[in-house]
TrEMBL record:
Entry-linked PANTHER family: 3,4-DIHYDROXY-2-BUTANONE 4-PHOSPHATE SYNTHASE, GTP CYCLOHYDROLASE II-RELATED
The protein's Enzyme Commission number: 3.5.4.25
GO cellular component, as recorded: cytosol
Protein name: GTP cyclohydrolase II
Residue stretches making up the GTP cyclohydrolase II domain: 23-189
């Protein structure tokens, strides 16, 4: 198992700081929210992330395999509602499902553009407008198609006592990465939202070139 910087990780990273859980009511439900400061894979920078646990459920439910969503930050989709991706709808659907069933959503910052950052993400968009798919656009910029680091997510799950989980995701790579960091994924729970004309090609590339299990994207 390697982190984004290519260094093998054999144990969760230290938590530099964490808040106490605070109740935050949202449109999807009520959640206990905690902030976490955890070193990035390079060991020199620090990311701040959130965990959102369904209200009425204690944070440590290690005797079961609760529902968990690892959601990568997407400013354009999560905040501004961009139709170029499915991130915003996936975030809100994940919160709805966890509010109804119980579980935790981990919101991972510093994951913009699958880990390439906001400036490079918008540069990649320009290349996509010229005909490149999402993988090709990153490669034309000299960047990997997938640069996200899941070490911080594993640390948060360990801290919450969530070593066995049902992962709310269509991306098998997440389960593989978590397994290398001591998190057992007992089940991959399908999590797909409807495609739009604006993000159809984006979703088809995730399915065809990145092995995402998307069942409702037309050829």
């Amino acid at each position: 198992m390697t982190g984004a910087a290519g260094h093998a990780e054999t144990a969760p990273r230290p938590v530099l700081a964490t808040s106490e859980p605070v109740m935050i009511p949202m449109a999807e439900g009520r959640f206990l929210v905690r902030a976490w400061q955890i070193p990035d894979a390079d060991g020199t920078t620090v990311g701040e992330h959130l965990s959102l646990t369904a209200s009425g459920q204690r944070e440590d439910i290690s005797a079961t395999a609760p529902l968990v969503r690892l959601h990568s930050e997407c400013l354009t989709g999560d905040v501004f509602g961009s139709y170029r991706c499915d991130c915003g709808p996936q975030l809100h659907l994940g919160l709805e499902r966890i509010a109804a069933e119980g579980g935790t959503l981990v919101y991972l910052r510093r994951h913009e553009g699958r880990g390439i950052g906001l400036v490079n993400k918008l540069r990649a968009y320009q290349l996509q407008d010229g005909g490149a798919d999402t993988v090709e656009a990153n490669e034309l910029l000299g960047l990997p198609a997938e640069a996200r680091d899941w070490g911080a997510a594993a640390t948060i799950l360990h801290e919450l006592g969530l070593q066995r989980i049902r992962l709310l995701s269509n991306n098998p790579l997440k389960a593989e990465q978590l397994a290398g960091l001591g998190i057992e994924v007992t089940d991959m729970v399908h999590h797909e939202v409807a495609a739009r004309p604006e993000n159809h090609d984006y979703l088809a590339t995730k399915r065809d070139r990145m092995e995402h299990r998307l069942l409702h994207v037309d050829d």
